[in-house]
């Protein structure tokens, strides 16, 4: 039966959602369990984000008509949306997102196997290693899975690990190690700084450690830890100690010379400076770390996170041979492949320099506004994010809400000692590398205007 045109139009009008339909009221957060406090503000604007210590909110609605006119021009395939400038996930390039729309394919089919193999080989270039005994891993999971890989595979119960404490995420790494039975010693620094080489040397001289862990950029504070001199110190004072780096917020925006600096493990994730949607745990381990895995006296206390289970799979994929232990995410691998091709199309040194230039611009603007950073020492400030102390009388929840209305999303604090006293500004990937974007300039202007709206006057 063929419907008459006017009947079709009538049906269509009835099926459409009325533009005037009232928005459903948000639920009363007091009736919901505490676990909702862990839900990101991007999903539920009435809930606190990230940790129980955070208090920021977004406004109930964001009028896309208020977003910068350039937004639709610079994001050709993406609908207008608030610019995401948190320390990850970051804004994504169109080509990376489009590559995820690849048709469904077998994870052991020749096409996907070749793509995955190329991805693993490109990771060697990103980490700057040519050592054939080094082993890359790409697993479905978040950056946190990297901690489990280290704790379950390289450390046996009762072995000593020295954790350099710079904030919330180094604390988390220590907790993960303890779960697997490691004997953890934390060398903690005051908020906004890092342990210094003399005290690290003293600790290494007092006890033999199986591994030392360092959070290259602690996303909770914006503190950057230096790796080259640290690694040289460890190799001199305790050469048998494995050097493990949490590079979740540093890989692809801070220099990491895996071979040149003698690192044994770097764990990271897809959604930060690498510029790929969240969902992949990415890591590189040295031949020395792989030997430590082989020489374990006990089997790894994990199944999915067992490097013994995954090593032959990764080797086969890189050799373009089909293999199976658990199903990977083909769409995310395609996105990662695209992101890595973009990264490696230019010298890595240029990429690091561009992030430093953008970081210097942000930090100068912050200083010019009369604001202070959590990481006070310029030598200890990350180049992919900035943690900014709030001025007296300005609440983070209010400031973030006003910023969001202007189409800019910053993150609240997550370090439990100072959570309500600061905000975090992520400046990584395409937001600083794509010349067609004005993300950083727009964010700095929005920040200045929002502070004024909060009643702030520069001294």
From TrEMBL:
EC number of this enzyme: 2.6.1.44
GO CC, one annotated term: peroxisome
Cofactors: pyridoxal 5'-phosphate
UniProt keyword terms in alphabetical order: Aminotransferase, Pyridoxal phosphate, Transferase
Domain Aminotransferase class V: 102-415
GO molecular function, one term: alanine-glyoxylate transaminase activity
Magnesium as UniProt keyword: no
Protein's organism: Thermothelomyces thermophilus (strain ATCC 42464 / BCRC 31852 / DSM 1799) (Sporotrichum thermophile)
Protein's UniProt name: alanine--glyoxylate transaminase
Pfam (any one): Aminotran_5
A biological-process GO annotation: glycine biosynthetic process, by transamination of glyoxylate
């Amino acid at each position: 039966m063929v419907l008459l045109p006017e009947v079709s139009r009538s049906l269509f009008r009835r099926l459409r959602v009325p533009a005037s339909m009232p928005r459903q009221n948000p639920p009363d957060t007091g009736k919901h369990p505490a676990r909702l406090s862990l839900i990101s503000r991007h999903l539920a604007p009435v809930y606190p984000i990230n940790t129980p210590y955070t208090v920021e909110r977004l406004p109930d609605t964001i009028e896309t008509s208020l977003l910068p006119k350039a937004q639709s021009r610079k994001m050709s395939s993406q609908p207008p949306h608030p610019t995401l400038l948190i320390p990850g996930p970051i804004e994504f390039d169109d080509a990376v997102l489009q590559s995820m729309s690849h048709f469904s394919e077998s994870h052991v089919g020749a096409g996907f196997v070749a793509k995955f193999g190329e991805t693993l080989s490109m990771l060697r270039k990103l980490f700057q290693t040519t050592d054939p005994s080094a082993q890359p891993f790409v697993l479905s999971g978040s950056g946190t899975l990297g901690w489990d890989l280290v704790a379950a595979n390289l450390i046996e119960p009762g072995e000593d690990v020295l954790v350099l404490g710079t904030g919330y995420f180094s604390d988390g790494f220590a907790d993960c190690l303890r779960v697997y039975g490691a004997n953890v010693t934390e060398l903690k620094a005051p908020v906004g700084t890092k342990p210094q080489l003399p005290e690290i040397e003293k600790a290494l001289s007092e006890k033999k450690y199986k591994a030392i862990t360092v959070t290259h950029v602690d996303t909770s504070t914006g503190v950057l830890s230096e790796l080259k001199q640290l690694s040289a110190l460890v190799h001199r004072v305790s050469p048998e100690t494995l050097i493990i780096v949490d590079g979740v917020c540093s890989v692809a925006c801070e220099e990491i010379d895996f071979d040149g600096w003698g690192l044994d493990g770097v764990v990271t994730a897809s959604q930060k400076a690498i510029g790929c949607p969240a969902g992949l745990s990415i890591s590189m381990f040295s031949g020395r770390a792989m030997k430590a895995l082989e020489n374990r006296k006990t089997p790894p206390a994990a199944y999915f996170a067992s490097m013994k289970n995954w090593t032959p799979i990764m080797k086969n994929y890189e050799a373009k041979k089909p293999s199976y232990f658990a199903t990977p995410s083909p769409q995310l691998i395609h996105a990662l492949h695209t992101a890595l091709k973009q990264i490696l199309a230019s010298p890595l040194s240029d990429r690091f320099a561009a992030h430093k230039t953008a970081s210097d611009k942000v930090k100068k603007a912050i200083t010019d506004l009369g604001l202070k950073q959590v990481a006070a020492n310029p030598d200890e400030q990350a180049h992919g994010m900035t943690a900014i102390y709030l001025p007296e009388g300005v609440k983070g929840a209010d400031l973030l809400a006003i910023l969001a209305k202007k189409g800019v999303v910053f993150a609240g604090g997550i370090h439990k000692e100072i959570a309500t006293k600061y905000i975090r500004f992520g400046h990584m990937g395409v937001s600083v590398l794509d010349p067609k974007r004005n993300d950083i300039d727009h964010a700095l202007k929005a920040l200045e205007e929002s502070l004024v709206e909060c009643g702030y006057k520069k001294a």
